Amino acid sequence: MTQEIHGTVADGFEGVREEFAAFVARERRERPDYEGQLCAYVHGRRVVDLWAGPEVTAGSLYGVFSCTKGAAHLVTALLVQDGTLEPDRKVTYYWPEFGAEGKGALTLRDLLAHRAGLVGLDAGFTAEELADDRLIAERLADQRPFWRPGTAFGYHALVIGALTGEVVRRATGRTLQEVYEERVRAPYGLDFFLGLPESEEPRFRSVQPMAPTPEQRSVLDDRQTGPHTLASIAFNTHVPGAVDLVDHANARLVRAKGPASAGGVASARGLAGMYAAAISEVDGRPALLKPDTIAEVGQIHSIGHDLVARTHKAFGLGFQATAENWYPFLGAGAFGHSGAGGAQAFADPRSGLAYGYTRRRCAFPGGAAPENVAFVRAAHRAALAL
Known about the structure:
Blueprint: E1 5-9, H1 14-30, E2 36-42, E3 45-52, E4 61-63, H2 68-82, H3 91-94, H4 108-112, H5 133-141, H6 160-172, H7 176-188, E5 192-193, E6 204-205, H8 214-222, H9 230-234, H10 245-250, H11 252-257, E7 265-266, H12 268-279, H13 291-298, E8 302-305, E9 312-315, E10 320-321, H14 322-325, E11 335-336, E12 344-348, E13 353-359, H15 372-385
Parallel strand pairs: 4-6
Antiparallel strand pairs: 1-3, 2-3, 2-13, 4-7, 5-7, 8-9, 10-11, 11-12, 12-13
């Protein structure tokens, strides 16, 4: 099996390769078609660069679902750092129309922390509408919030990128995707796109749906929510002809537009490389974020019962609080975002670790794939030993 694992690791990171190889061997006994990528940087140096799958390369690109939110909120972090955005200003300072239906007092900080109560539309969205951030924002400006803004939090799964993106557009005159391309992706040559050019399409590997065992199917069935719950509204499953997330990621329209909530396309190198650039010097370029900004985005802003996920969650300034949500052995202030298909990406400023993982087939039970725990633990242990 080791021969089927491609790529390299730096001295001291052999344990990461061993964990990846062991997982691939186990996974292929039940799902022979597994393919995925794993990448990590420490203090701006790539130390893990692995992939598995007969047609996969380090440059293969995958739909990474909500990992996209990490790119979107790196843009907002940069604009906060510049002084272009001020987290404690009301959203209406930038976007006056947002104040309809009792939303006028909401601050940008609370919006970024999933406290707006604006998780979706009563009438829902079509598949085409979910590819258009500006249209999503226009529709949501008129929507009555589902809880009093600022009093609680819930995951704005398919709309947070459009909401923050509209603030970016009003403040800069440019779309969030344009700012990301100019300030983040292009300067570093990252394989993490919010809007995949036609020329890069041959590298895209279509997302494959989850293939649960009968036991796993039973678990998923037990987790199903009714058509009028906050979870159903947030994931747009409360309307006839609900959008399937796999179909969403596989739609060329979505990849071309790169909606900032869940429309990004990336390799593991691209995911890890973006977070490395955020916190570390990379190839002679200074870190994108200054220490004070890193501390602010990693500071927990919302923690406790998530009204949409219906479980304990924590968010920083747009990002997930990675240690609190997933890996408690990471340093306080680790920040990033996972994706529905199993992808994971984050930065741990205390160890200097930046991490990215992609896989083609959606993982049970949804969200960050369980195998990430072993990979992250091994990479973190090796990073601390340097």
